[in-house]
Amino acid sequence: MQKRRKNRLLLFKNGEVKMRKVIKIFIIFTIGFNCIACNPKHNDYSISVIDTSSTTNKSQITFYDNNLIKKSIYKYNYAELGTHFYQPQYKNSNIYLVPRGIGNKHDEKKIISINKKTRQVHEIYVNKNNIQCVSVSKRYLYTSSNLNMISYLTQYDMKKKKYHDLSLNDQYLSLVFSTNKYVYCFVNSLNKEFIYSTLQIYDHNLQPIKNIDITTIGNCQRKYTIYKNKAYIPVSYDMNDQNISKLIILNLKTNIIENIISFENTSYIGEIVKYKKYLLISHTNEVSLNKAKFTIFNLNNNKFKTINSNICIKSMAIKNNSLYTVDSLNYIYKFDLLNDMKLVKKIKHTPPKNMYLSTIAS
């Protein structure tokens, strides 16, 4: 059990230690992507499906319309672009993704933003190997990275084009997200008996504001959503490294954990998306599909209903009044949210040779 805990906390530790000089500009990256379609409109799609490779610098994004008809394909020169473990981030008309780089190196050292209208790519250089996730607020961009049990919270000031780092020794930074006032870091560390977990809150000068012990709640936070000044964060493992299914409700004004919701008789939470006043939650079980479930959670009163889904949901996205999901076999489903989540259509998406489906985005 101790070895298993250590292995998971040491996940993604590979990478180079050679450092490069920080580049303080955005790079408009147009070489390396092209469109395969008959001059399609740029705003006629509902979801984008990201395929990528861990062995070569190849990725592609396929755009589907609301009838799940393929509209266009764009190719990019990145390895391990996106992941279903973390959500794509959105700001204005841009999608922010992490291209981690070749699997045995993870040394891409950048974040990319893709304009949903033009498909142009901007690169933001981050002088860190093994970047895990990205968060974007009004002025700042934050990343978490981990190497040899040292985690780094990196801040990029998009106005002043300056960088600021915070190192966390012997700790694993599993999730970072930010508001216009605070930065929230979910951090795990291994002791001899259990996994110690904290929520560390900083201001945008990276000065500590508050430290909350969440060990008894659980760890391995990787996703979140925000609704009416509250953050909703799934919890996947308890302090003894056993699968659980919980939801932390954090008040972003007071920085107090207001509630902890437990979902009984369900697998761990694989994905969450917000739709109007509801949080849609998939409970993933790759081994037994009859244990895969789906929860509709009312964000106004914390009431919820859980149903059997029989779909091992890998990733989800919302567009208008439709829910799009992709399962572990790369089938894409469209559900009508105005008609009791009626299945509208199901198609098979086939990644290119030597590539895999990493995630979907709206």
Please tell me about this protein's structure.
The protein is mainly β. The protein is 2% helix and 51% strand. The chain contains one helix and 29 strands. It has one helix at residues 2-9; strands at residues 27-29, 47-52, 59-64, 70-76, 89-91, 94-97, 110-115, 121-125, 131-136, 140-147, 150-157, 162-169, 172-178, 182-190, 195-203, 208-213, 225-227, 230-237, 243-251, 256-262, 269-275, 278-283, 293-298, 304-308, 313-319, 322-327, 331-336, 342-348, 356-361. The strands form seven sheets. The protein has a five-stranded antiparallel sheet with strand order 1-8-7-6-5, with no helix packed on it. Strands 4-3-2-29 form a four-stranded antiparallel sheet, with no helix packed on it. Strands 9-10-11-12 form a four-stranded antiparallel sheet, with no helix packed on it. Strand 2 and strand 3 form a beta hairpin. 40% of the residues are buried. Residues 6-40 have low confidence and may be disordered.
How many DSSP H or I helices?
1
What portion of the residues fall into strands of 2 or more residues?
over 45%
Reported for the largest beta sheet, the result is: 5 strands, antiparallel
List low-confidence stretches: 6-40
What is the CA-based Rg, rounded? 20 Å
Termini Cα gap: 39 Å
Please bin the fraction of helical residues: under 10%
**Classification by helices and strands:** mainly beta
Say how many strands there are.
29
Q: What is the average of the pLDDT values?
A: 85
- Largest beta sheet: what is the strand line-up? 1-8-7-6-5
Listing every helix as H and every strand as E from the N terminus to the C terminus, the arrangement reads: HEEEEEEEEEEEEEEEEEEEEEEEEEEEEE
